[in-house]
Amino acid sequence: MLNGQLEKMEEFDQPAYRIAMAYFDSAARLMHLDPNLYERFKTPQRALIVSVPIRRQDDRVQVFRGYRVQHNSALGPFKGGIRYHPGVNLGEVAALAMWMTWKCALVGLPFGGAKGGIRCDPDTLSRAELQRLTRRYTSEIFPIIGPDKDIPAPDIGTNEQIMAWMMDTYSQHVGYAIPGVVTGKPISIGGSMGREDATGRGLAFTILEAMRHLSISASGSTAVIQGFGNVGKHAARILSGYGIRIVGVGDAKGCLLHEGGFDISRLLNYTAREGTVIGFPEGESLSPAALITQPCTVLIPAAVSGMINLENAAQLQCRILAEGANLATDFEADAILNDRGVFVIPDILANAGGVIVSYFEWVQDLQNYFWKEKEIQDRLAEVMTGTFAHVLSRSLSEKTEMRMTALMIAIEKLATAHLARGLYP
Ligand code: GLU
Fold it and tell me: Given Cys at both, which of 44, 131, 183, 286 links 358, Cβ 3.0 to 4.6 Å?
């Protein structure tokens, strides 16, 4: 009984983990992954659960639950974001940690995957409470992070201010400034040019490459973006610069449709002020379900996991699905998209721009030598378009979908490293 339960890894058994495992299993089967390696890759190397007590404004002490999961370090130090969201749990963080392993391996970064998070609703916390929460969480995970060990970054619900508090807390513990402990920091304390819009920019590069492959011209194309946070808003700005009309946008509060295409700089000014797309004078409001199924050239899910699922996969009317969000598509929904001929740019490729520029930030911090924005954008473009071309050519020659091809390339790289390093002891 006990063995049976452990076999099922019930500690991690959450929807996001099930999606990640289903994809990993199917890639492992397709590539005939060595069963010894399969066993090692399917669970994280280390998972830490911490209690994070903070004093609230009303003097009460509230204890939050925090996590840091480190999936695999065969290729280098652990790397991955910190998520503040009410849905954060061990299984989700473990799934996203594994996803960081594949993402870093796919694009050739010398990192292993990790992810962290706190189960909380950051919108209900004051700035002072958020600062206390971040500092206490950082000191609880202090023993396992560091510029040579594990380097956190922003994710859903966190930003450069949270990274600044993490960097400061870590540095205070050690006794001197250690900028390389986190990425996605403000420029003033060792952040990198081009990090903030890197995920959106990388996403745009892969979309333009997919359009080139499918012989679709950018002018005359349309995009629908679900999720208007750091990823969605920069993708909107950059894509509209290439002449792609943004006809639909949505966030947690509501969705808008404007067939003529939104004036993106006005929309960005509005959302910066109001914190939502709702109330913007252009376009009319529609339901989240209707937004996802709008006819468009490119659909960009850029919010939480599982937004493309069995309820909507058969109704999508996009030619390209570009996954800004990690684990954007449920496993069963993916098969429907493939049958329907939707060209999928999978998450570990589509949204890798963020961690690529995080890598550049870390290298700059370690060398105390900072690059110009153009240099960063050119190198980002080179990695994104090079990886896209590699995945596409293997996908075409092996007649395997882009998602499975990307996963197999990543798993192969990790497998090679494991076989070279051998099993300790
Ligand atoms: N949270 C981002 C991701 O999921 C960035 C991670 C990083 O920069 O380390 O890729």
Answer: 183
